[in-house]
From TrEMBL:
Annotated organism of origin: Aromatoleum toluolicum
NCBIfam families documented for this protein: Na_symport_lg
Topology class, membrane: Multi-pass membrane protein
Name of the protein: Cation acetate symporter
UniProt family annotation: Belongs to the sodium:solute symporter (SSF) (TC 2.A.21) family.
Amino acid sequence: MSGPSPFARRLRRYYLWYTISFICFVGLLAIGEKMGMSQGVIGHVFLFATIAIYAGIGVMSRTADVTEYYVAGRRVPAMFNGMATAADWMSAASYIGLAGTLYFTGFEGLAFVTGWTGGFVLVALLLAPYLRKFGQYTIPDFLGARYQGNVARVVGLIAAVIASFVYLVAQIYGVGLITSRFVSVEFEIGLFIGLAGILVCSFLGGMRAVTWTQVAQYVILIVAYLVPVTILSYKVTGVPVAPVMYGTVLGKLSEKESELLTDSAEVAVRKQFAKRADDYEAKIAYLPDSLDAERRELIERLNQLRLNNAPARDIAHTERALRDLPRTPDQARVQWERARVEAIERSRPPPRHAQAHPGDTPEQRQVARNNFLALVFVLMVGTAALPHVLMRYYTTPGVVEARKSVFWALFFIFLLYVTAPAYAVFAKWEVYNNLIGTSISMLPNWLVSWGKVGMVNIEDINGDGILQLAELSLNTDVILLATPEIAGLPYVISGLVAAGGLAAALSTADGLLLTISNALSHDLYYKVINPNASTQRRLVISKSQLLVVAVVAAWVASLRPDNILFMVGLAFSIAAAAFFPALVLGIFWKRANRPGAVAGMLAGPAVTLYYFVSTHAFFGGSMENAWFDISPISSGVFGVPLGFLTIVVVSLLTPPPPPEVRALVDYVRYPRLPADDPGIFTESK
């Protein structure tokens, strides 16, 4: 058995020195903090130095060669493709959102870990080696060849653009969140600072630059993820092995949860929030009269305060309340309904961290179980169908390397996923023990800092000056980023975590941008509009699409449509419904034909998007429209079976594909080219 190639050995040497240099860089910043370096300087150095590294790799990897630009020359060794795939995969959702989701949902959050990990098993068994054997550049390439022409190709590229765009918005949102907090700029400005880092990596060198940048980003993000939780594990348990030790802390946390659930002050606060929810319900029921009455009441109160020379703070507070009052009954209905839902959430006791499928009744527990299973299914199938992940297997030297790179990707992803539950438990332990029950006037600075970004909200509803659990509202995405500050670790650790989050968001955003621009330039422009386009023109079109898509995605992210993990869940549902049935049946069922595939790729995503829009509040939907009480994040659970059923039924009702298409299936499925293969597709492509 031959050893690694000279190219692979050279890469190992380069990235070993890179890793050692990065660790030394962090050590120097830690020494600088000890010597008085300010937090602002540390944050700026971390973020801009890492972006400069990625930009440097992007510039050095620039290329005008089509194969290098689209598939990195098909020479990426399995281990490095596994690292790049892991970085491409471990987006802001995994890095930033997963720990927060586990913090708030406990056992239920394990659906993400189970679904995402299981998805790579499907990739290895059902898709990656066969797509690599096919050999072209994009997923729509395969759809166009397997299903005879541009109709299937165009439907596939539309689905790829929609799914990747939703995913991209989540990544840019994460970039804006990190830069706005650690560089002290407005959220919208932070979006475009991060966008510059995304573009410089993918714009010049395409997949070649993105691949080598993603390997560098993986090193940073995994170091940044493991270091804080290892220190925290040692601080809390005395043993620096977080995945092993968090179980002992979970037992103590369960006891603390029992105390908080029965604490008289906590119960009283939850009742006050329940009363507030009832008040909002009544105000909504009596619109528009209730809006007029509230406006009159605020005006009268403001006049009385001014007449009585009340403190300026009280006057300003009342003026702000009057200014923020909805202008119309329709605005009031939307705003008050949102406030009512928030009050209801705060009025409920938090679920126990270790409880599976929580609920007050058997029916509620069954609904929780169904949603857990639906989410696992969607994430597994969505993982196996994401275009930007599947594209990575076109970059390996051959089919065997593609299979090996799936193994390496699973290993590198495992390092993060096995640690995420520990993050959630340790962070919750610190909050419950060192934050809840303290005086609001003595709260730590990190609450104020994250409050300015809109990620933390504290409301002393009972006016006792003590922080109760229900009075603290934390955004899901803040848990990981704030954990070092929650635990009182040195600020250099916070900067390290931010740099890791930025690496995770940038790496995935690079891959997604490349997927979208390649679909538009290669599959639409070159394959459909202008097959005679020169190499130079194809690359110009691709790069121009990069710019347009990036700016539009940044604008959508500035609207803050939802938290990162939820947006990513929607992308998975769309990808699962659009691609998984068509790809799997295209590889394993010769009878699947063009009418069936096109119908399936339209029907599955259509039902998925309809269900999401009709049940998600951002689009004016409501869970009253839900089927079987399934959450909108799992909308693909309806689209995937419909996609399979539609492809099978329509294919059986229409003529079978021609012999050359069946020969293509044999070529993709089996190690050697069949004797009767027309020879159109070769692995060198």
